[in-house]
Predict the structure of Glycoside hydrolase 43 family protein.
Amino acid sequence: MTTPIIAGFHPDPTICRVGDIYYIANSSFEFAPGVPIHRSTDLVTWTLVTNALQRPDQLDVHAAPESTGVYAPTLRYHGEKFWLVTTNVVEFHRGQLIVSADDPAGPWSEAVHVDGAIGIDPDLVWDEDGTCHLTWVSAAPELTGIASAPIDPATGKMLAPPRLLWNGTGLAFPEGPHLYRRDGWWYLMLAEGGTERGHAVTIARSRSFHGPFEAAPTNPIFTHRSSSHRVQNTGHADLVQLADGSWAMVYLGVRPRGQSPMFHVNGRETFIAGVDWVDDWPVVDEERFAPSPPDHSFVDRFDSLDLDPRWMSPNVFPHTFARRGAPGRLVLTAPALGEPRHVLSTRARDLEWTAEVELDTTGGTGCFLVRLDGSHWYGLTADAETVEATVVIGPASTIAARVPIPPGDGVRLRISVREPVASGPMPPPEPDIVELAVLAADGAPQVLGAFDGRYLSTEVAGGFTGRTFGVEPIAGEAVVRQVSYRTHPAR
Protein backbone atom coordinates (compact mmCIF):
# COMPACT_ATOMS: atom_id res chain seq x y z
CA MET A 1 0.00 0.00 0.00
CA THR A 2 1.58 3.27 -1.13
CA THR A 3 -1.51 5.45 -1.63
CA PRO A 4 -3.01 7.16 1.41
CA ILE A 5 -6.77 7.21 1.81
CA ILE A 6 -6.54 10.68 3.43
CA ALA A 7 -3.46 12.43 2.12
CA GLY A 8 -1.50 15.34 3.52
CA PHE A 9 -1.08 16.08 7.26
CA HIS A 10 -3.78 13.75 8.59
CA PRO A 11 -1.97 11.85 11.36
CA ASP A 12 -3.12 9.64 14.23
CA PRO A 13 -6.23 8.25 12.48
CA THR A 14 -9.14 6.89 14.50
CA ILE A 15 -12.09 5.16 12.86
CA CYS A 16 -15.62 4.08 13.75
CA ARG A 17 -18.55 2.62 11.82
CA VAL A 18 -22.28 3.34 12.09
CA GLY A 19 -24.27 1.03 9.83
CA ASP A 20 -22.68 1.23 6.40
CA ILE A 21 -20.93 4.57 7.01
CA TYR A 22 -17.39 5.00 8.30
CA TYR A 23 -15.86 8.05 9.94
CA ILE A 24 -12.21 8.97 10.53
CA ALA A 25 -10.91 11.72 12.82
CA ASN A 26 -7.31 13.00 12.85
CA SER A 27 -4.99 15.12 14.95
CA SER A 28 -4.74 18.84 14.16
CA PHE A 29 -2.10 20.16 16.62
CA GLU A 30 -1.93 23.97 16.87
CA PHE A 31 -4.45 24.59 14.07
CA ALA A 32 -8.00 25.84 14.56
CA PRO A 33 -10.61 24.60 13.96
CA GLY A 34 -9.42 21.24 15.22
CA VAL A 35 -9.87 17.52 14.52
CA PRO A 36 -11.02 17.06 10.91
CA ILE A 37 -13.63 14.34 10.39
CA HIS A 38 -14.00 12.47 7.09
CA ARG A 39 -16.83 10.19 5.91
CA SER A 40 -16.83 7.15 3.60
CA THR A 41 -19.03 4.28 2.50
CA ASP A 42 -16.28 2.22 0.82
CA LEU A 43 -13.21 2.88 3.05
CA VAL A 44 -11.13 4.18 0.12
CA THR A 45 -12.97 7.36 -0.91
CA TRP A 46 -13.25 9.94 1.87
CA THR A 47 -15.00 13.31 2.09
CA LEU A 48 -14.30 16.00 4.68
CA VAL A 49 -17.44 16.51 6.79
CA THR A 50 -16.39 19.05 9.38
CA ASN A 51 -13.89 19.90 12.09
CA ALA A 52 -15.17 18.74 15.47
CA LEU A 53 -13.60 21.51 17.57
CA GLN A 54 -14.93 24.70 16.00
CA ARG A 55 -15.39 27.06 18.95
CA PRO A 56 -13.15 28.66 21.57
CA ASP A 57 -15.16 26.96 24.35
CA GLN A 58 -14.02 23.63 22.89
CA LEU A 59 -10.50 24.48 21.80
CA ASP A 60 -7.92 26.99 23.00
CA VAL A 61 -4.67 26.87 21.02
CA HIS A 62 -4.01 30.62 21.11
CA ALA A 63 -0.71 30.14 22.95
CA ALA A 64 0.13 26.72 21.53
CA PRO A 65 3.73 26.35 20.34
CA GLU A 66 4.16 24.63 17.02
CA SER A 67 3.40 20.88 17.02
CA THR A 68 1.51 21.12 20.29
CA GLY A 69 -2.23 21.65 20.74
CA VAL A 70 -4.51 18.74 19.81
CA TYR A 71 -2.87 15.32 19.92
CA ALA A 72 -4.29 11.93 18.98
CA PRO A 73 -8.10 11.66 19.23
CA THR A 74 -10.34 8.61 19.47
CA LEU A 75 -13.75 8.62 17.76
CA ARG A 76 -16.41 6.15 18.89
CA TYR A 77 -20.18 5.62 18.59
CA HIS A 78 -22.18 4.47 21.62
CA GLY A 79 -25.69 5.04 22.93
CA GLU A 80 -26.78 6.73 19.68
CA LYS A 81 -24.08 9.37 20.13
CA PHE A 82 -20.67 10.04 18.68
CA TRP A 83 -17.97 10.53 21.28
CA LEU A 84 -14.60 12.13 20.64
CA VAL A 85 -11.81 12.26 23.20
CA THR A 86 -8.45 13.95 22.69
CA THR A 87 -5.68 15.87 24.40
CA ASN A 88 -5.02 19.59 24.17
CA VAL A 89 -1.47 19.66 25.50
CA VAL A 90 -1.72 23.41 26.06
CA GLU A 91 -4.31 22.53 28.72
CA PHE A 92 -2.43 19.46 29.90
CA HIS A 93 -3.33 20.11 33.53
CA ARG A 94 -7.09 19.85 32.83
CA GLY A 95 -6.93 16.21 31.73
CA GLN A 96 -8.42 14.60 28.64
CA LEU A 97 -11.03 16.50 26.61
CA ILE A 98 -14.36 14.91 25.58
CA VAL A 99 -17.05 16.19 23.21
CA SER A 100 -20.14 14.44 21.83
CA ALA A 101 -22.62 14.86 18.99
CA ASP A 102 -25.71 13.23 17.55
CA ASP A 103 -24.29 13.70 14.06
CA PRO A 104 -20.55 13.81 13.21
CA ALA A 105 -21.25 16.89 11.07
CA GLY A 106 -22.07 18.64 14.34
CA PRO A 107 -22.77 20.59 16.29
CA TRP A 108 -20.40 19.06 18.84
CA SER A 109 -21.00 19.70 22.52
CA GLU A 110 -19.04 21.88 24.87
CA ALA A 111 -15.93 20.14 26.10
CA VAL A 112 -15.69 18.35 29.42
CA HIS A 113 -12.35 17.37 30.94
CA VAL A 114 -11.39 14.30 32.93
CA ASP A 115 -9.69 15.79 35.93
CA GLY A 116 -6.63 13.78 36.95
CA ALA A 117 -6.19 12.00 33.60
CA ILE A 118 -2.90 13.71 32.87
CA GLY A 119 -1.17 12.55 29.70
CA ILE A 120 -1.86 12.05 26.00
CA ASP A 121 -3.51 9.74 23.43
CA PRO A 122 -6.85 8.94 25.11
CA ASP A 123 -9.20 6.10 24.14
CA LEU A 124 -12.85 5.37 25.02
CA VAL A 125 -14.44 1.93 25.24
CA TRP A 126 -17.60 0.54 26.85
CA ASP A 127 -17.59 -2.81 28.66
CA GLU A 128 -20.32 -5.47 28.77
CA ASP A 129 -22.06 -3.64 31.63
CA GLY A 130 -22.17 -0.37 29.69
CA THR A 131 -19.46 1.31 31.76
CA CYS A 132 -17.23 3.71 29.82
CA HIS A 133 -13.48 3.34 30.33
CA LEU A 134 -10.93 6.02 29.49
CA THR A 135 -7.45 4.73 28.63
CA TRP A 136 -4.50 7.03 28.04
CA VAL A 137 -0.72 7.39 28.24
CA SER A 138 -0.35 8.62 31.79
CA ALA A 139 2.32 11.21 32.52
CA ALA A 140 1.56 11.42 36.24
CA PRO A 141 4.74 10.72 38.25
CA GLU A 142 2.95 8.19 40.43
CA LEU A 143 1.41 6.34 37.47
CA THR A 144 3.52 6.27 34.32
CA GLY A 145 2.39 4.11 31.42
CA ILE A 146 -0.85 2.95 29.80
CA ALA A 147 -3.50 3.76 32.41
CA SER A 148 -7.25 3.22 32.45
CA ALA A 149 -10.16 4.31 34.63
CA PRO A 150 -13.97 4.11 34.44
CA ILE A 151 -15.56 7.50 33.78
CA ASP A 152 -18.83 9.24 33.12
CA PRO A 153 -18.17 10.57 29.58
CA ALA A 154 -20.98 13.13 29.85
CA THR A 155 -19.39 14.90 32.82
CA GLY A 156 -15.79 13.71 32.71
CA LYS A 157 -16.02 12.44 36.28
CA MET A 158 -13.61 9.61 37.08
CA LEU A 159 -15.51 6.78 38.82
CA ALA A 160 -12.53 4.88 40.27
CA PRO A 161 -8.78 5.43 40.59
CA PRO A 162 -6.78 4.70 37.42
CA ARG A 163 -4.65 1.59 37.10
CA LEU A 164 -1.96 0.46 34.69
CA LEU A 165 -2.81 -2.10 31.99
CA TRP A 166 0.13 -3.10 29.75
CA ASN A 167 3.14 -0.97 28.84
CA GLY A 168 4.10 -2.64 25.60
CA THR A 169 6.93 -4.86 24.45
CA GLY A 170 9.80 -2.68 25.61
CA LEU A 171 10.20 -0.45 22.58
CA ALA A 172 10.41 3.31 23.04
CA PHE A 173 7.33 5.46 23.63
CA PRO A 174 4.42 3.05 24.13
CA GLU A 175 1.42 5.22 23.23
CA GLY A 176 -1.77 5.48 21.18
CA PRO A 177 -3.73 2.85 23.16
CA HIS A 178 -6.99 1.43 21.79
CA LEU A 179 -9.08 -1.26 23.48
CA TYR A 180 -11.41 -3.69 21.67
CA ARG A 181 -13.73 -6.51 22.70
CA ARG A 182 -13.84 -9.59 20.39
CA ASP A 183 -14.92 -13.20 20.95
CA GLY A 184 -14.40 -13.13 24.69
CA TRP A 185 -11.03 -11.38 24.54
CA TRP A 186 -10.05 -7.83 25.41
CA TYR A 187 -7.35 -6.52 23.05
CA LEU A 188 -5.07 -3.58 23.81
CA MET A 189 -3.28 -2.19 20.75
CA LEU A 190 -0.40 0.29 21.05
CA ALA A 191 2.00 2.32 18.96
CA GLU A 192 5.64 1.78 19.92
CA GLY A 193 9.09 2.79 18.73
CA GLY A 194 8.34 6.49 18.31
CA THR A 195 6.49 8.07 15.40
CA GLU A 196 9.60 8.22 13.22
CA ARG A 197 11.34 5.40 11.28
CA GLY A 198 11.06 2.93 14.17
CA HIS A 199 7.27 3.19 14.43
CA ALA A 200 5.40 -0.10 14.99
CA VAL A 201 2.02 -1.55 16.01
CA THR A 202 1.90 -4.01 18.91
CA ILE A 203 -0.98 -5.78 20.64
CA ALA A 204 -1.82 -7.80 23.74
CA ARG A 205 -4.94 -9.61 24.96
CA SER A 206 -6.67 -10.66 28.16
CA ARG A 207 -9.85 -12.48 29.12
CA SER A 208 -10.48 -9.70 31.66
CA PHE A 209 -10.58 -5.98 31.02
CA HIS A 210 -8.31 -5.58 34.04
CA GLY A 211 -5.66 -7.97 32.74
CA PRO A 212 -3.13 -9.42 32.92
CA PHE A 213 -2.48 -8.78 29.21
CA GLU A 214 -0.53 -11.30 27.15
CA ALA A 215 1.59 -9.92 24.30
CA ALA A 216 1.09 -11.31 20.80
CA PRO A 217 3.83 -13.80 19.87
CA THR A 218 4.37 -12.04 16.53
CA ASN A 219 4.78 -8.48 17.87
CA PRO A 220 5.11 -6.06 16.28
CA ILE A 221 2.11 -7.07 14.22
CA PHE A 222 2.82 -4.26 11.72
CA THR A 223 5.82 -2.07 10.88
CA HIS A 224 7.90 -0.88 7.92
CA ARG A 225 11.01 -0.16 9.97
CA SER A 226 14.36 -1.21 8.46
CA SER A 227 12.72 -1.77 5.07
CA SER A 228 12.88 -0.06 1.68
CA HIS A 229 9.08 0.37 1.51
CA ARG A 230 8.02 3.68 -0.01
CA VAL A 231 5.78 4.34 3.01
CA GLN A 232 7.63 4.68 6.30
CA ASN A 233 6.93 5.56 9.97
CA THR A 234 3.88 3.28 9.90
CA GLY A 235 1.96 2.96 13.15
CA HIS A 236 -0.60 4.55 15.48
CA ALA A 237 -3.31 2.22 14.20
CA ASP A 238 -7.02 1.78 14.95
CA LEU A 239 -9.20 -1.24 14.13
CA VAL A 240 -12.76 -1.34 12.82
CA GLN A 241 -15.14 -4.20 12.08
CA LEU A 242 -16.75 -3.77 8.68
CA ALA A 243 -20.44 -4.12 7.92
CA ASP A 244 -19.78 -7.58 6.41
CA GLY A 245 -18.04 -8.80 9.57
CA SER A 246 -14.47 -8.52 8.28
CA TRP A 247 -11.91 -6.17 9.82
CA ALA A 248 -9.66 -3.32 8.70
CA MET A 249 -6.97 -1.14 10.21
CA VAL A 250 -6.17 2.52 9.58
CA TYR A 251 -2.70 3.79 10.39
CA LEU A 252 -0.40 6.72 9.77
CA GLY A 253 2.58 6.72 7.45
CA VAL A 254 4.83 9.12 5.53
CA ARG A 255 6.16 9.18 1.98
CA PRO A 256 9.84 10.19 2.19
CA ARG A 257 11.81 11.08 -0.93
CA GLY A 258 15.26 12.28 -1.91
CA GLN A 259 18.60 10.97 -0.72
CA SER A 260 19.38 9.70 2.77
CA PRO A 261 17.96 10.34 5.31
CA MET A 262 15.10 11.11 2.88
CA PHE A 263 12.52 13.81 3.54
CA HIS A 264 8.76 13.75 3.97
CA VAL A 265 7.00 17.04 3.40
CA ASN A 266 3.22 16.54 3.58
CA GLY A 267 3.27 15.22 7.12
CA ARG A 268 1.91 11.94 8.42
CA GLU A 269 -0.96 10.66 6.29
CA THR A 270 -3.72 8.07 6.76
CA PHE A 271 -3.48 4.62 5.15
CA ILE A 272 -5.61 1.47 5.35
CA ALA A 273 -5.02 -2.29 5.45
CA GLY A 274 -7.12 -5.41 5.87
CA VAL A 275 -7.01 -7.55 9.01
CA ASP A 276 -7.56 -11.29 9.41
CA TRP A 277 -7.84 -13.08 12.73
CA VAL A 278 -5.61 -16.15 13.13
CA ASP A 279 -5.66 -18.01 16.45
CA ASP A 280 -7.46 -14.96 17.86
CA TRP A 281 -4.62 -12.60 16.88
CA PRO A 282 -4.84 -9.91 14.17
CA VAL A 283 -2.80 -10.44 10.99
CA VAL A 284 -2.40 -7.44 8.71
CA ASP A 285 -3.04 -7.68 4.94
CA GLU A 286 -1.63 -4.55 3.31
CA GLU A 287 -2.90 -5.39 -0.18
CA ARG A 288 -6.60 -5.86 0.57
CA PHE A 289 -7.58 -2.33 -0.35
CA ALA A 290 -6.54 -0.54 -3.54
CA PRO A 291 -7.34 3.17 -3.28
CA SER A 292 -6.73 5.33 -6.34
CA PRO A 293 -5.06 8.70 -5.81
CA PRO A 294 -7.96 11.17 -5.63
CA ASP A 295 -8.05 14.50 -7.38
CA HIS A 296 -7.76 17.08 -4.60
CA SER A 297 -8.17 20.04 -6.98
CA PHE A 298 -10.45 22.88 -5.94
CA VAL A 299 -11.32 26.48 -6.74
CA ASP A 300 -12.62 28.60 -3.88
CA ARG A 301 -14.15 31.95 -4.86
CA PHE A 302 -15.45 32.61 -1.33
CA ASP A 303 -19.03 33.11 -2.45
CA SER A 304 -20.47 31.41 0.64
CA LEU A 305 -20.95 33.13 3.99
CA ASP A 306 -19.14 30.22 5.66
CA LEU A 307 -15.60 29.11 4.92
CA ASP A 308 -15.11 25.63 3.54
CA PRO A 309 -13.96 23.27 6.34
CA ARG A 310 -10.62 22.85 4.55
CA TRP A 311 -9.55 26.27 5.86
CA MET A 312 -7.79 26.64 9.21
CA SER A 313 -5.14 28.78 10.88
CA PRO A 314 -2.38 28.17 13.42
CA ASN A 315 -3.36 29.41 16.90
CA VAL A 316 -6.44 31.41 15.91
CA PHE A 317 -9.80 30.59 14.35
CA PRO A 318 -10.11 31.97 10.79
CA HIS A 319 -13.37 33.74 11.60
CA THR A 320 -11.45 36.07 13.95
CA PHE A 321 -9.55 37.68 11.06
CA ALA A 322 -11.38 36.65 7.87
CA ARG A 323 -14.66 38.22 6.84
CA ARG A 324 -16.64 38.18 3.64
CA GLY A 325 -16.79 41.58 2.00
CA ALA A 326 -18.78 41.35 -1.19
CA PRO A 327 -19.28 37.99 -2.93
CA GLY A 328 -15.91 36.82 -4.16
CA ARG A 329 -13.98 39.03 -1.73
CA LEU A 330 -12.59 37.55 1.48
CA VAL A 331 -11.04 40.27 3.63
CA LEU A 332 -8.11 39.18 5.82
CA THR A 333 -7.00 41.52 8.61
CA ALA A 334 -3.42 41.60 9.86
CA PRO A 335 -2.88 40.86 13.58
CA ALA A 336 -2.37 43.51 16.20
CA LEU A 337 1.05 43.80 17.83
CA GLY A 338 1.72 40.77 20.02
CA GLU A 339 -1.00 38.62 18.46
CA PRO A 340 -0.26 35.30 16.68
CA ARG A 341 0.21 35.42 12.94
CA HIS A 342 -2.97 35.16 10.87
CA VAL A 343 -2.48 32.50 8.20
CA LEU A 344 -5.54 31.26 6.33
CA SER A 345 -4.24 27.79 5.55
CA THR A 346 -5.16 24.49 4.01
CA ARG A 347 -3.24 21.24 3.76
CA ALA A 348 -1.03 20.38 0.79
CA ARG A 349 -2.39 16.97 -0.30
CA ASP A 350 -0.16 15.78 -3.14
CA LEU A 351 3.45 15.12 -4.07
CA GLU A 352 3.14 17.51 -7.03
CA TRP A 353 0.70 20.40 -7.14
CA THR A 354 0.09 24.00 -8.16
CA ALA A 355 -1.79 26.64 -6.18
CA GLU A 356 -2.73 30.16 -7.26
CA VAL A 357 -4.25 33.17 -5.53
CA GLU A 358 -5.80 36.39 -6.79
CA LEU A 359 -5.18 39.23 -4.33
CA ASP A 360 -6.24 42.84 -4.01
CA THR A 361 -3.48 44.60 -2.06
CA THR A 362 -4.60 48.19 -2.47
CA GLY A 363 -5.52 48.28 1.24
CA GLY A 364 -2.67 46.29 2.70
CA THR A 365 0.03 43.67 2.24
CA GLY A 366 -0.52 39.94 1.82
CA CYS A 367 1.72 36.90 1.52
CA PHE A 368 0.95 33.72 -0.41
CA LEU A 369 3.07 31.03 1.18
CA VAL A 370 3.77 27.36 1.65
CA ARG A 371 4.98 26.51 5.15
CA LEU A 372 6.02 23.67 7.38
CA ASP A 373 5.95 25.97 10.39
CA GLY A 374 6.52 29.62 11.24
CA SER A 375 10.28 29.26 10.85
CA HIS A 376 10.31 27.22 7.64
CA TRP A 377 8.37 28.72 4.73
CA TYR A 378 8.65 30.08 1.19
CA GLY A 379 6.34 32.87 0.09
CA LEU A 380 5.38 35.72 -2.22
CA THR A 381 4.63 39.00 -0.42
CA ALA A 382 2.68 41.62 -2.34
CA ASP A 383 1.80 45.21 -1.55
CA ALA A 384 0.34 47.84 -3.87
CA GLU A 385 3.56 48.12 -5.89
CA THR A 386 5.88 45.11 -5.62
CA VAL A 387 6.10 41.37 -5.06
CA GLU A 388 8.93 39.82 -3.06
CA ALA A 389 9.95 36.16 -2.98
CA THR A 390 11.03 35.25 0.54
CA VAL A 391 12.78 32.12 1.79
CA VAL A 392 12.83 31.42 5.54
CA ILE A 393 14.83 28.47 6.89
CA GLY A 394 15.09 28.59 10.66
CA PRO A 395 16.93 31.76 11.70
CA ALA A 396 17.96 32.49 8.10
CA SER A 397 15.65 34.69 6.03
CA THR A 398 16.33 36.20 2.64
CA ILE A 399 14.49 38.08 -0.08
CA ALA A 400 15.36 36.08 -3.17
CA ALA A 401 13.78 38.47 -5.70
CA ARG A 402 11.68 41.63 -5.95
CA VAL A 403 9.63 42.70 -8.97
CA PRO A 404 6.96 45.32 -9.69
CA ILE A 405 3.36 44.14 -9.77
CA PRO A 406 2.27 43.45 -13.36
CA PRO A 407 -0.35 45.78 -14.83
CA GLY A 408 -3.94 44.76 -14.22
CA ASP A 409 -6.60 44.49 -11.58
CA GLY A 410 -4.94 42.98 -8.50
CA VAL A 411 -2.10 40.47 -8.49
CA ARG A 412 -1.98 36.74 -9.24
CA LEU A 413 0.60 34.61 -7.46
CA ARG A 414 1.53 30.97 -8.00
CA ILE A 415 3.27 28.25 -6.00
CA SER A 416 4.20 25.06 -7.86
CA VAL A 417 5.69 21.93 -6.34
CA ARG A 418 7.25 19.32 -8.60
CA GLU A 419 9.52 16.34 -8.22
CA PRO A 420 13.11 16.92 -9.36
CA VAL A 421 14.48 15.15 -12.42
CA ALA A 422 17.12 12.51 -11.73
CA SER A 423 20.39 13.05 -13.59
CA GLY A 424 22.04 9.74 -12.77
CA PRO A 425 21.57 6.41 -10.99
CA MET A 426 21.08 8.07 -7.61
CA PRO A 427 17.82 9.82 -6.73
CA PRO A 428 17.97 13.60 -6.57
CA PRO A 429 19.04 14.87 -3.13
CA GLU A 430 15.91 16.96 -2.60
CA PRO A 431 12.35 15.59 -2.26
CA ASP A 432 10.88 18.28 -4.52
CA ILE A 433 11.32 21.76 -5.96
CA VAL A 434 9.14 24.68 -4.87
CA GLU A 435 8.70 27.35 -7.53
CA LEU A 436 7.38 30.85 -6.81
CA ALA A 437 5.98 32.96 -9.63
CA VAL A 438 3.97 36.09 -10.42
CA LEU A 439 1.42 35.75 -13.22
CA ALA A 440 0.78 38.39 -15.86
CA ALA A 441 -2.76 39.27 -16.93
CA ASP A 442 -2.52 36.67 -19.73
CA GLY A 443 -1.33 33.99 -17.28
CA ALA A 444 2.31 34.08 -18.34
CA PRO A 445 4.52 33.31 -15.29
CA GLN A 446 7.45 35.37 -14.11
CA VAL A 447 9.38 32.90 -11.98
CA LEU A 448 11.04 34.53 -8.98
CA GLY A 449 12.83 31.42 -7.81
CA ALA A 450 12.84 27.62 -7.52
CA PHE A 451 13.94 26.29 -4.14
CA ASP A 452 14.97 22.98 -2.57
CA GLY A 453 11.96 21.48 -0.79
CA ARG A 454 13.94 19.59 1.86
CA TYR A 455 14.00 22.70 4.06
CA LEU A 456 10.22 22.50 4.33
CA SER A 457 10.33 18.90 5.61
CA THR A 458 9.89 17.34 9.02
CA GLU A 459 13.40 15.91 8.87
CA VAL A 460 14.78 19.48 8.77
CA ALA A 461 12.21 21.46 10.74
CA GLY A 462 11.14 18.75 13.20
CA GLY A 463 7.65 18.55 14.66
CA PHE A 464 4.53 16.53 13.92
CA THR A 465 2.66 18.48 11.23
CA GLY A 466 3.01 18.82 7.45
CA ARG A 467 2.99 21.43 4.74
CA THR A 468 0.14 23.87 4.43
CA PHE A 469 -0.33 26.74 2.02
CA GLY A 470 -2.45 29.86 2.14
CA VAL A 471 -2.61 33.60 2.59
CA GLU A 472 -1.23 35.69 5.43
CA PRO A 473 -2.21 39.35 5.86
CA ILE A 474 0.98 41.20 6.79
CA ALA A 475 -0.27 44.76 7.15
CA GLY A 476 -3.69 46.37 6.87
CA GLU A 477 -6.17 44.27 4.93
CA ALA A 478 -5.49 41.85 2.10
CA VAL A 479 -8.47 40.83 -0.03
CA VAL A 480 -8.55 37.31 -1.46
CA ARG A 481 -10.64 36.95 -4.60
CA GLN A 482 -9.90 33.34 -5.39
CA VAL A 483 -7.65 30.44 -4.39
CA SER A 484 -7.18 27.43 -6.66
CA TYR A 485 -5.33 24.17 -6.13
CA ARG A 486 -4.54 21.67 -8.84
CA THR A 487 -3.32 18.13 -8.36
CA HIS A 488 -0.67 17.13 -10.91
CA PRO A 489 -1.35 13.76 -12.59
CA ALA A 490 0.86 10.90 -11.43
CA ARG A 491 3.86 10.35 -13.66
